[in-house]
Write a structure and sequence with these properties.
Elements lengths: L4 E2 L10 H5 L2 E5 L4 H12 L3 E6 L2 H11 L5 E5 L5 H5 L1 H9 L4 E3 L16 H22 L4
Parallel strand pairs: 2-3, 2-5, 3-4
Antiparallel strand pairs: 1-2
Length: 145
């Protein structure tokens, strides 16, 4: 359950080649799959990235793959923990100086079963990860940007 990316503050960025070096991006689920690839591509393009994932071992592997660990901040956070997620923008600002953007790309699916056979805990987990989890970083980050 990961899935966030914050990027530095565009309003204060110069329009020159040094601006790219100051980018800071935060992304959920940077530990594997689409999230990892988004984070790696942002780093290849010169951004500073904060990767968020629930699994520290996935974040460690992402760090190993980057070749740009100096521009990568990793945070092991369960994105369904609203208090932990609410604290992320300040951590990104402390590491990168600003927030330029946010990518919410975490998502899960429920077991493939008839609706009447689904357990409410499974359905609540899907709603928590796919709906509520992205709303907290969005609400916390956009007032800053």
């Amino acid at each position: 359950m990961g899935g966030l990316t914050l990027v530095g503050d565009n309003r204060h960025r110069r329009k020159d080649t040094h601006a790219r070096q100051r980018q800071g991006v935060r992304g959920n689920r940077r530990g594997n799959g689409i999230g990892r690839e988004l984070g790696l591509e942002l780093l290849r393009r010169g951004a500073r990235v904060t990767a968020v994932d629930i699994r520290e071992e996935s974040l460690a592997e992402t760090t190993r793959l980057t070749g740009a660990a100096d521009r990568l901040q990793t945070l092991a956070v369960d994105i369904t923990d609203r208090e932990a997620v609410a604290a992320l923008p300040e951590k990104v600002i402390a590491a990168h100086g600003a927030v330029d953007g946010l990518i919410n790309n975490a998502g899960i699916i429920q077991p493939f079963a008839r609706l009447d056979a689904l357990d409410y805990r499974d359905m609540e987990r899907v709603v928590n990860v796919n709906l509520w989890a992205p709303s907290t970083p969005s609400r916390r980050s956009y007032p800053i940007c």
